[in-house]
Amino acid sequence: LDIISEIVKCVAFDRKMPFNNMLVRANKEGIISEKLLEYVKNQSPKEEMIKPKDLIDLMVHLGIASKCEESEEYFMPTLLNILDAKGVQEILSLCSDPIAPLALYQEKGWLKCGSFTFLITSLLSSKQWTLAKIENNFLCVHSNCIKMCFNEFCNVTLIDNASYIEVHLDGDVDIIKDECPEIKKCLMKACEYGVQIAFLCPCKLFGDKHLAIPTKASLKHKKVVCSKDHSKTLHLSELGSNSEIWLERSKQAGSSVH
Hints:
By secondary structure, the protein is an alpha+beta fold. It has helices at residues 2-12, 20-29, 34-43, 52-62, 85-92, 115-124, 173-190, 216-219, 244-253, and strands at 31-33, 66-67, 73-75, 102-106, 129-131, 141-142, 145-150, 154-160, 164-170, 195-200, 211-213, 223-226, 233-235. 36% of the residues lie in helices and 21% in strands.
């Protein structure tokens, strides 16, 4: 793993070296290749090192990287820069959210370290999912905010908030309504065991962002429970447009609502 360590150091500290254009891509787009790994390996004085191809295969197996479609390159989200709060808000301002944003969380504590990376690489292992290209054909990829495309027509923006992952949809409302059940199915399948669904709470009583939790008891009255104040409930209509679409699938899935 010394090869990856050297690449991470070069990206993190902007160290100059031959093949620097490849390091720029690793930093800005999270893209690595066997060619880059081979070069870094050859610069090391150590004789015994894992072969670049075997290292890439290991990273793909562990969910650290995923192969880019129709190329010999690989996407490694952990190499990307973090997008600051202002940048995240700018990305969200471009999302139409025809269906209320979803949140993926664990009932007992924060999401495990690496959950966001594993979710991204797992989704990209399916031909239904690709990295979305935005203005001027650029990828919108950051270590905590990535825009993806599902079945070509639905943009899905995923944001890592450490304690939960936000899911925002963008596109034609009728297409998204049709695709929403399959998007939800893919997200839940890609996530680790024990992940639940929730919504972003519109409650104004607390300054920080928090969740609105659907429970079996609250859904009988078409309501969700504020995660900051369990005595406070909100009607589904307060969450945003078409929120019930997510919940209809949740009832069928059984494990998504507690």
